[in-house]
Design a protein that fits this description.
The protein is α+β, with helices and mostly antiparallel strands and 244 residues long. It has 3 domains: 87 residues, no CATH class; 80 residues, Winged helix-like DNA-binding domain superfamily/Winged helix DNA-binding domain (Arc Repressor Mutant, subunit A, Orthogonal Bundle), CATH 1.10.10; 56 residues. The strands form 3 sheets. A 4-stranded mixed sheet has the order 1-2-3-4. A 3-stranded antiparallel sheet has the order 5-7-6. Bound molecules: zinc ion. Zinc ion binds next to loops.
């Protein structure tokens, strides 16, 4: 498929959720940037589109992962042949119902500026916020949090837009099991000129790496300052639970 045909196809259909993108597809011939009402903003390489035979399940996982990434960072994630399967594996397992309910509760909590505020959620476009694969699955979790007393739900229109407000029981549930809020961490170290070389730096650096690995993070980028210290950006592929 030539680049023009690929661009035409992308302008019609988001490759992850199959909906039309909200704005014209940008990027270069090798990497396209999509702005989708469901998946939010992300980039995807031509190689993934042409050569990766992603399953519907992997696509819905990627949709939720890239949306969450943009929601947290305001920067689009780039899906490549190197990372597409690892990114998809960051989503909870298909039948991890409780995990997905927690993502929904935490999403409402995070979007609430204060307890009692109502948060708009439209199943048609917001279903990936709890890693649901469809509107139906989203409604299943949304109904549960209301039935379980974790939230009040109010239908706003005929198109499925609802407002949700966490109850005190819902806030307690959110606080009861803290989860890793962001998939990204940033570590910076600085040493005196003498400490920059040798055991002091290496010991501290390796200790921090071991701890981050234990928590499920992996290194994304490393920067080595010219005068002192090192800094690294880490990303957590499993979004593991963080208990502090
Ligand atoms: Zn999409």
């Amino acid at each position: 498929m030539n680049p023009a045909d690929l661009l035409e196809q992308l302008s019609q259909t988001c490759p992850l959720c199959n909906r039309p993108p909200q704005t014209p597809v940008g990027g270069t011939d090798d990497t396209y940037e999509i702005n989708c009402g469901v998946c939010s903003r992300y980039r995807i390489t031509k190689e993934v589109l042409l050569f990766e035979n992603l399953t519907p399940e992997a696509k819905s996982q990627l949709s939720a992962v890239v949306r969450r990434h943009f929601d947290y960072t305001q920067h689009p994630e780039t899906i490549t042949t190197m990372n597409c399967r690892e990114l998809a594996s960051a989503a909870p397992a298909k039948n991890d119902v409780i995990g997905k309910v927690r993502y929904l509760l935490r999403y409402i909590a995070r979007k609430s500026h204060f307890p009692g505020e109502r948060v708009n959620l439209k199943g048609e476009t917001d279903y990936p916020v709890c890693f649901a694969a469809s509107v139906e699955e989203f409604r299943y979790y949304a109904q549960y949090i209301v039935d379980a007393g974790f939230a009040d739900g109010q239908r706003m229109d005929m198109h499925g837009e609802c407002q949700y407000c966490l109850t005190p029981k819902g806030w307690k549930e959110v606080e009861r099991i803290p989860m890793l809020e962001s998939p990204c961490a940033f570590v910076a170290m600085s040493f005196s000129k003498e400490g920059h070389y040798g055991a002091l730096l290496n010991g501290a650096y390796e200790e921090a790496i071991t701890e981050l690995f234990t928590m499920g993070f992996r290194s994304r980028r490393k920067f080595f300052g010219p005068a002192s210290g090192r800094s690294s950006s880490w990303e957590c592929p499993q979004r593991r639970q963080l208990v502090m």
